[in-house]
Design a protein that fits this description.
Elements (H helix, E strand, L loop, with lengths): L3 E6 L4 H13 L3 E4 L10 H13 L6 E5 L3 H7 L7 E3 L3 H9 L5 E5 L5 H13 L11 H23 L12
Parallel strand pairs: 1-2, 1-3, 3-5, 4-5
Helix pairs in contact: 1-5, 2-3, 4-5
Amino acid sequence: MKEKIIIAADPAGKGLKDQVKLHLVSRGFEVFDVGSTDNQEVPYYEAGYAVGKAVSEQAFPRGILFCSSGMGVSIVANKFPGVYCGLVESLETALLCRMINNCNVLSLGERIVTPYKAVRIVDAFLDTPFASPTSGFAPDFLKKACAQIHSYEEALSAHSAAGLTPDRHKSGS
């Protein structure tokens, strides 16, 4: 069975998305494109939302986002629990986002990354395992760090669900 991946782009990232999509299909991925097409423009916040939600709900193990800089879509995707979207501009950071941070969503900027480089970054993102001994960190430390981040996420979610808000700074009046 083909591995599934969800991708999306706003109009400013559509060209790069389309080129990466062809590469993903050539690698045998079943690609679900929920972003801008020739017939429909999807704003960056909707593209980030769609991919973030799908990965958070575990409908897809991984996703890839595109916009002009990669920042807008990554900010939105990272709002979802369990989504770790890395904004990547180099092959080195693609490797590290997987090895160290266990990123499950990749964000690329069409104004920043060439198509040739984007394909290499995507391959590194897809092929690099988490907690690799070559990361420079002990795999046990990396697993513990990710578990701790997940526990922060759960605590913040419970805090938010309970309707609690942070204490406001009180003036000395």
